[in-house]
Model the fold of this input.
Amino acid sequence: MKDVKISNIQFIFLLVSFIFGNSSVFTLGSGVSQDAWLAYILGWIAGLIIIGVIVYLAKLNQSKTLIGILTDSLGKYLGKSIALIYVVYFIIKGGWVLRTYGEFCKGAGYERTPLVFIISISALVLVYALNNGLEVLARANELLAPLLVTFTLVVTVLLIPEFTFDNFLPVFESSLGNILISSSTIACFPFGEVMVFLMIFPYMANEEKLVKFTYMTTIIIGFVIFISILRDLLVLGPELIDITIFPTNIVVGIVPSIQIQPPLLTAVYLIGCGIKAYVYVFAAITAITEIFGFDDYKPLVIPVTTLNVVIGMWIYDNVFEMLHSVTRNVPYIFLIFQFIIPVIMLIITIVKKQNKKQTIS
Amino acid sequence: MFKKLSSIFKYIQLKSINDSKKNNKKSIKIPTSLEETKTKLKGIFSDCGEFVMKEVILGNELKVKIIVAFIDGLTNEESVDSNILKPIMIESRKVFLDNENKDLLSIIKKHILNSCIVDEERDFNTSVNMILDGNTVLFIDGEDTSLVIEAKAWEARGIEKSEVENVVRGPREAFTEQISVNVSQIRRRIKNPDLKTEYMKIGEKTNTDICICYIKGVVNKDILKTVKRRLERIKTDSILESGYLEEFIEDGPFSLFATLGNSEKPDIIAAKLLEGRVAILTDGTPVCLTAPYLFIESLHVSEDYYSRYFFSSVSRIFRVLGLLISAYAPAIYVALITFHRDIIPFELLLTMAGAKEGVPFSPLVEALIMLIAFELLKEAGVRMPRPVGQAVSIVGALVLGEAAIQAGVASPPMVITIAATAIASFTVQPLQGTIPIFRFFMLFAANILGFLGIMLVTVVILIHMCSLRSFGVPYLYPFSPLTGSDLKDTILRAPIWAMFTRPKALSWDGNKNTKYKMNIDYRKKED
Done:
């Protein structure tokens, strides 16, 4: 595993696919109707703060994974037990990504295909990719990620004639509290999720530049997501956005003169969701190998992916529950993992470094 | 089955080179007494009718007995008569001998024989091998060294036009079955002492000549070392064609993609050598191997570089299109019909539904029938003797085209799709064997999950291709890992005056050439 190297471009594309991931399935901030864009901008800024903490933590602890950071700052036993909780978090998140993708496929033309089938077939591909290692996936993603972004931008450009700018009005229709709640959701998903990359950063070839690359990518891809939210809002209007489950599906069907239909979307969004699920499962597996000191992670691939499928099936009863949890509920529990524990870790690291300096001097 | 195969493969890979060195035959000295040599040779070449062993006596006052041994049919007998026998028996009388200088070998070598290539050989087994190679060997009474004289000549095909790789513009000549002719064809194109040719023999029974060609200073040392090491590792009875070698040294033995290129045109090989690749020529076949071989090379044709750059760029784009159509067209058709009818424009859907009426099979079965028929036709077209050709084309065109529709076995849109697939598949010749298999995979995936299935299979293939390496170089090289400056010669071809750097992954050397350094070395070294 040690000789895995991810080049700068590969890292950027990996992050692009990851953030774009299953957030492209939903219209973020759709809980607050026409103020979605406002909530998104606030969430984006908050997300950049969270990412700042994560990136700074990674920079201080170079060539160390999340598990290494935890055990170094909290001691062997406490660190490893928190790391185990993180493993559970990664597995749940991975299953959740698979589930959202499966539901999206069901909503986009595969009504009669069982959900389990879609999820497990995708998981099979995931297993194949995991067995080939991170470097291979990063290289495959280098070819696939541009497709994802280009597709979104092309659809947006084609839809310009359908834009109704009155859909913005009236601004601040929903209360500030609602907007803040919605924006905190956005800060957690998709931006706070970048925390998983604490498991990926050590594989970067130029780890010194991770701050620059992470920020650059987050801003660029954040802008693409912003554009797609604006598009959904301007084409569909606030009422439709609130009612429909997957607004992107309908928006893509409207594209004039070219027959793009939701089924094509499932093929394209497979890239984002697949990469996101991959990163989560990979993080979980490498975390387990590091906690227990295994040599190779390959024997864990099939059990953990199976667990993901099971959790994905079991996590929600139906689509509406999923939608509610994603767009209208503050995932406080995730904030603990994404923000609070990293902040504590950051403080401990800084204090330890200063102590070291003092003892040396 | 795969487990067993892979264990054999691992055994072959891990078998150290020391192992093969250990098995080298011990050297046997040439006996000084001529009678002993004679009986030994007779024993080795018993029941070999072509073997000729002639005992002659040196013409001058020394009167030394000499055995001239060669194989009839591999040797130019005229040259043996006039350049070896005549000097030894008759003209040696004119050679003045000092009493002090009694070194018989050098006298014969320097004063008597008038052939240009004369070597000394101390090992008996090697001498025998030299005889088998077509050389003429002299055994001299009282000496433990034999003289090897090259007088090879045998009937062979001349240089002809390539039958497989056709070009409109560019050189037409192709390699022949003789390795020496092939090397000379390359040498005529690259007149540079840096063009190195290293010979070796592989095959315990066939003793086939292999030649590794490369340009010193351009080739990457690691790649060259890997090629040599893998060739040395081969332990087999016979090498009859370069395909034998390919299977022994290729990177992905279970992959559908070839990781070694082949060509039978000297200009293509010369171009690849100049890019920093290694060429492996095999005696007895016009097909030459090149390593490393990247995916993008299968979309390239030598003519791309001979015609003007925008024309070749356009034709390359069409080739990519052909590749995509030949891999995806039937699958997309099946996916549209079975899953996503709403994408098809309404008018077309009506006519398609009308055409499909009366066809009892599902689109998958229909596509399978037509595809299998096409593959059979293709195979028959290659194998059949020429005079029967017309019969096959008539059956193909009439029975499978017209009659299949009239009989209600296939619908017209399906026939169109398969025809387009067939035509497109011929645009990418090097992937002829690979694409049909993927086509069937895609077809089944499309039947199960529509576009999503096609995408899943595509992703799996992509991941597989990304995991492949050819002699340490990533298979999808200029695209992934993305290397901007090497994209100049991929789907579009930049003008030749704009291509002034060699492909980095092939010729980049860690120590020098720091100006064009990659930020990561993507190659993997073998240990």
User: Anything to note?
Assistant: Chain A touches chain B at residues 5, 7-10, 105, 109-110, 113, 118, 121-122, 125, 128-129, 132-133, 136-137, 139-140, 142-144, 205-206, 259, 261, 263-264, 266-268, 270-271, 274 (CB under 8 Å). Chain A has a mean pLDDT of 87. Chain A has one domain: 8-360. DSSP finds 14 helices and no strands in chain A.
